[in-house]
Amino acid sequence: MTRRRWIADTWDEASAALHGDQAQHLSRVLRAQPGMEFDVVAGGRAWLARIASIDRDSVRFTLLEELKTAPALPVTLLLSIFKFDRMEWAIEKAVELGSSRIVPVLAERTEKHLAQAAGKRVERWRRLGLEAAKQSRRNDLPEIAEPTRLATVLAASEPADDPKRSAVGDVTRPLRILLSETEEDQPLLRILETSADAMDGIMLAVGPEGGWTASEIALFTGAGWHSASLGPRILRVETAVIASLAVVNAATLKAAS
User: For the chain, how far is it from start to end, CA to CA, in angstroms?
Assistant: First the structure.
C-alpha cells in the first residue's frame, strides 16, 4: 500500500514537523498515532518518517531514510489570469505535472474584476498547490507567485548581472516559449528537441482567454521568446496547460533516456 506523503512545515537534519491544518488532518481525521510511518518531504527531499509525537496542532516525525524521487520539471509557467474556477483546476494540474513555479499574469485581456480580485486568491492557490503536490507525491512544494503584470515578468526574465542566471525562477539560461494559436509556428515538441537550453530550464507562457494581444506578442518577441504551436485546434487555457506540460514531460524523459 502506498504511504501518504506530507510536506513538512519545519525540519532539521533528523526530524520534521507538521503544524496547523496538516497536523489537524493527520491527528483528528486520520487518527494517526506515534510509531506510524509516512513519507515526509523536508527541504526538497523525501524521507520515510516515523511519528515521534502528536497532538491536535503539531505532529513531529523522526526522519528514517531518504527516498529516491523524481525531480520537478525545470518549468516556470506564466499563466494568464482567467476565470477562477478553471484557473484553479489548471494550477492543480500544473502542479501534478511537475511545474516548479507558477506566475499568475495580468494580461491585457484579463477581465477587470478578476484582476482586482486575484491578489486575494493567492493563498487559496497555494493551498491547492500544496494538496496537489502531496497527492502527486512530489518531493518539493512549487512556488506560486503573486499576480504580476506581463511587462514586469518579461523584464524580470531577462538575464541578470550574471549572464547565466535569470531573475525569474532562478534557472540557467531558460528556454522561453510562448504558446501561440498560429499553427504555422513550430510545434512545441520540435522546439524542445532542437534546443540545447531546454533541459536547463523552461519558461512557458499560456493564455489568456481570447489570446495574447498584438502588443503583448511584440513584447514577447522583443524579449527573445520563441512562439510554439500545440497543433491546429484552438484550446482552452486549462487544456493548453495540460497539453504543453505533457509535451515537456515527454521531451524531458526522452532526453534523460
Answer: 29
pLDDT in tens, 138-188: 888 899 999 999 999 998 876 544 433 343 444 356 899 999 876 667 899
Is there a contact between 168 and 126 (Cβ–Cβ < 8 Å)?
no
| Alpha carbon distance 202, 187 (integer Å) | 15
Report the C-alpha gap between 8 and 116 in whole angstroms: 32
CATH fold label, 73-256 = Alpha/beta knot (3.40.1280)
The continuous run of DSSP H or E covering 168 comes out as none
Do you know the residue count of the chain? 257
pLDDT in tens, 21-49: 999 999 999 999 999 999 999 988 899 99
Query: Domain map of the chain by residue range?
Result: 5-66, 73-256
- Conformation bin of residue 250: beta by default, left when phi > 0, alpha when psi is -120 to 50: alpha
Residue 16 amino acid letter = A
* Whether domain 5-66 has CATH 2.60.120.560: no
**Dist CA 182 CA 239 (whole Å):** 16
Grid cell at residue 166: 535569470
Question: pLDDT band at 137, cuts 50/70/90?
Answer: confident
Cα gap 239→101, rounded to integer Å: 18
Phi and psi, residue 237, nearest 5°: -55, -50
Q: Answer positive or negative: Cα dihedral of 22, 24, 28, 34.
A: positive
Angle between helix 237-256 and 84-96 (nearest 10): 10
Contacts of 1 (CB under 8 A, 6+ apart): none
Q: Which residues contact 87 (CB under 8 A, 6 or more apart)?
A: 79, 81, 104, 237, 238
Q: For residue 130, what are the CA distances in angstroms to 14, 57, 76, 125, 207?
A: 23, 18, 17, 9, 23
